[in-house]
Amino acid sequence: MQKNRLGHHLLSLARHYSRVAPPPPAYADPVIRVSNNVAYLGSPKQGPKPRQLLSLPPFPGHHLPGKNSATGRVTAISWLKYYFDEISDSAIQSHFNKGLVEIESSNPNAADSFIERDGQMKSLRKIKHNEVMEVGARVWVPVSIAETRVSKRFDCIPSGTLHPNADEIDYLRRLVKYKDYAILVLNKPPKLPVKVCLPVHNSMDALAAAALSYDYDEGPKLVHRLDRESSGLLLMGRTKESINHLHWLFNDINPAKSSCKAWNDACDAKFQRYWALVIGTPKENEGLIRSPLSKILLHDGKTERVILAQNVGLEPSQEAVTEYRVLGPMINGCSWVELRPLTSRKHQLRVHCAEALGTPIVGDYKYGWFVHRKWKQMPRVDIEQRTGKPYKLRRPEGLDVQKGSVLSKVPLLHLHCRELVLPNIAKFLPLLSNNAETLSPGLSGKPDLLRFVASMPKHMKISWNLMSSYLV
Hints:
Helices cover 24% and strands 23% of the residues. By secondary structure, it is α+β, with helices and mostly antiparallel strands. The chain folds into three domains: 53-146, no CATH class; 157-251, Pseudouridine synthase (2-Layer Sandwich); 272-415 and 459-469, Pseudouridine synthase (2-Layer Sandwich).
């Protein structure tokens, strides 16, 4: 009997101590949240994050090119459309309709919100699209206005099979900038691989064969490549004859030329021009890089890397030549550079920028990882090249632009094939196939050269806008 009482007493003690609740957090009252039918005890959720606002430069007051030249009045929506010329008019109008566009106000009583600038609190009021801009007025808009609205599902098409659906086919066809019976020219987005490999199913050549064949039995074929992270103009051949001539055209060691002088002159005029944002600035504003490249394997025996050849004769190397030109002053420790490759080597532009010039491309962690770490710690003050006065790139507190721009925590590669000039294959193909020396009368009126220009991807557009917007 006494043992039973002792057992009940110990059991009651155990039950008593098993129900002791943990102490509540010291900084806030505990909150019970339910997720997937499971209750959690923890601190309250954080409040809304600060708004991500972007400041346009003060309104200069002069007439905008092609805008309101007769009346001399510039409205707020005209000023935004002029500044964000690559953004659709409907996207800008929707920001006005939702009351997201604000202007600095000198009347704090009429202010809708406040923001800190130059250490002072500035009052902001909402502005209508038809209000007339005054000289020196500063407009504030959300960062989202600088981001093109592309669905996340199309950032990299998730096609495990080679049968894209109707939406994916429509998306791929919107990338096509030019099409004739011989070639296709596309503006490739970043993060979309070009050549198929074992772990990748949604490469450009595989998807193009399924979605860009149009009325042909077979899809187009690649004649040159772009890195997976880079973007820009990509050329594809549609027929066997055009593919062979384009391969010959992009071959660095061309065989004997044709007997047609117009074709030879058009081939000599062929070039590609890239835009890149690099960390630092080259010592010379323009120049020619002649640095042969070699491929090596790292210690794991699998990873391949391209380096500058040491010219000791022990490893195979390939000649690599690149023309470069600096496009403007250094801003926030970065410079926009124009690159024109005269040879076609793997990672040629990335290695030449990182190792030959000492200015790696923003987002190129393979060849510029250590410079990226140093660049994060660089001061954000520099000298304006034209006036010699200091300027500063301001990054407001709480602003952390994602989408891979220059202010992101992990920016994407800022390398874009901007311009492509090549012979008009559709014009010369009948002549080359018949080994003739003169063109037929029906083809002689067509241009000898085709020129294409591709707009930058969204992360490079944001970098361009942000770096110019915060110059003061």
